[in-house]
């Protein structure tokens, strides 16, 4: 029974490049989460404004939309490994800028927003390349297992990074957090450079607006995919509380718990990843996406209602677990049904669905907190999320009835992969 719950390691054992990509992501994610905590804390210290912290999401939004869509076209048209290498190096340079600014006697505010915007652009170019690379190096039937392992990689960094950041920022200073992030990008590059080249498919389209439009038309034709995008966008926009966590910690008189609050959502996700052996035996992926997204909203609402910091941490952890279940099955649906020649562009659209929501969610959370209070911002967003997900489920029957064993696109991709093997 215990073995059946443990993560399926088949992708790790079968592919050296998957192992290198996994290790690279683990290291860079750890560093990125250090900055993820340090940057809003620095803005809070410099401005004492919930709206100013929430505005991070606003400055990240436009680069995310533009570069996510065009980055998807680039991922289909260029060597994916080269894109990953150059964007990883660029993010390292941005960490250096944050470090230099933090070391100034009077750090400026504008570089924080500038780096946030540029980092959003680089991540938006890199993620479609990453998301379209690993399906090439993993067997078709191993993709749910690979999605769980990728999620585990992210959650380990998401738990350790914020927990360490809370201590580092409180006792050593912001500069040390930014310096550690810079170091992790350097180490990550070593692993990425050892991955085999991944050139564009022969039938790949040129990276222009026509190619982007082609990807969008394909996504629109797949109503079950549209359902996953819509559900995730609603969940992240309405119920993402991260922008107001520094103020929630103050409200609960628990400034010491800020790092734990940031780590709680990834911790819940990690618990699911560590017990994800069951995921490969579930075939109704769309139903699982809906149920888990609604669970995320209800857990966040409970965290907003509670006045005890330990209960807040508990419900944030539960919410993180639900969010990870949703992510695993969204990823399995995407990667088991989308053709290789469109994978990058669809990954760009996916990036918008799971990234635009959190960015807008930061603005929503900060604005609502300024108007109605921090805790009201959290619980109202969670309840709105659960209601929106329920409404989307009623409007999107193709998502609710999706079955990986019988869906025509999943069957076609399985046959294509088998013919190439």
Q: Could you characterize the architecture of this molecule?
A:
The longest helix has 32 residues, at 16-47. The chain is mostly helical. 80% of the residues lie in helices and 0% in strands. Helix 13 (285-305) runs antiparallel to helix 16 (374-395). The model has no long low-confidence stretch (mean pLDDT 85).
Describe the structure using short key phrases.
421 residues, mainly alpha, 18 helices, 0% strand
Quick overview:
It is built from 18 helices and no strands. The chain has helices spanning 2-5, 10-14, 16-47, 50-77, 80-102, 110-133, 143-171, 174-193, 209-221, 223-239, 245-251, 258-274, 285-305, 309-337, 343-372, 374-395, 397-400, 408-420.
Outline the fold blueprint.
Blueprint: H1 2-5, H2 10-14, H3 16-47, H4 50-77, H5 80-102, H6 110-133, H7 143-171, H8 174-193, H9 209-221, H10 223-239, H11 245-251, H12 258-274, H13 285-305, H14 309-337, H15 343-372, H16 374-395, H17 397-400, H18 408-420
Helix pairs in contact: 3-4, 3-7, 3-8, 4-6, 4-9, 4-15, 5-6, 5-8, 6-15, 7-8, 7-12, 7-14, 10-13, 10-15, 10-16, 12-14, 13-14, 13-16, 15-16
């Amino acid at each position: 029974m215990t073995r059946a719950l443990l993560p399926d390691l088949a992708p790790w054992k079968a592919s050296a490049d998957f192992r290198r990509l996994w290790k690279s992501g683990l290291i860079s994610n750890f560093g990125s989460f250090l900055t993820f905590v340090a940057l809003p804390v620095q803005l809070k210290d410099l401005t004492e404004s919930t709206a100013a912290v929430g505005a991070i999401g606003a400055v990240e939004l436009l680069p995310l939309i533009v570069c996510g869509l065009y980055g998807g076209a680039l991922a289909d048209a260029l060597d994916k490994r080269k894109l990953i290498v150059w964007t990883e190096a660029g993010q390292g340079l941005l960490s250096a800028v944050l470090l230099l600014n933090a070391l100034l006697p009077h750090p400026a505010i504008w570089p924080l927003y500038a780096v946030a915007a540029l980092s959003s652009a680089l991540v938006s170019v890199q993620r479609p390349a990453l998301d379209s690379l690993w399906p090439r190096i993993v067997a078709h039937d191993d993709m749910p297992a690979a999605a769980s392992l990728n999620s585990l990689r992210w959650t380990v960094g998401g738990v350790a990074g914020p927990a360490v950041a809370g201590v580092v920022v409180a006792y050593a200073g912001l500069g040390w957090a930014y310096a550690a992030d810079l170091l992790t990008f350097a180490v990550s590059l070593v692993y990425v450079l050892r991955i085999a080249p991944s050139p564009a498919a022969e039938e790949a389209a040129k990276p222009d607006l026509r190619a982007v439009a082609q990807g969008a038309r394909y996504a629109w034709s797949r109503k079950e995919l549209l359902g996953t995008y819509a559900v995730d966008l609603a969940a992240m926009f309405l119920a993402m509380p991260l922008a107001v966590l520094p103020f929630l910690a103050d409200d609960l008189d628990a400034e010491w718990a800020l790092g734990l609050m940031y780590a709680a959502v990834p911790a819940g996700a990690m618990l699911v990843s560590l017990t994800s052996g069951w995921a490969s035996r579930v075939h109704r992926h769309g139903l699982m996406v809906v149920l888990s997204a609604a669970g995320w909203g209800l857990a966040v609402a409970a965290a907003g209602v509670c006045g005890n910091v330990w209960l807040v941490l508990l419900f944030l952890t539960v919410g993180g677990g639900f969010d990870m279940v949703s992510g695993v099955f969204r990823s399995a649906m995407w990667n088991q049904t989308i053709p290789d020649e469109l994978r990058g562009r669809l990954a760009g659209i996916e990036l918008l669905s799971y990234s635009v929501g959190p960015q807008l969610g930061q603005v929503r959370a900060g604005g609502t907190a300024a108007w109605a209070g921090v805790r009201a911002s959290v619980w109202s967003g969670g309840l709105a999320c659960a209601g929106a997900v329920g409404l989307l489920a009623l409007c999107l029957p193709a998502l609710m009835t999706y079955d990986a064993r019988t869906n025509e696109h999943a069957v076609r991709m399985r046959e294509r992969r088998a013919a190439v093997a």
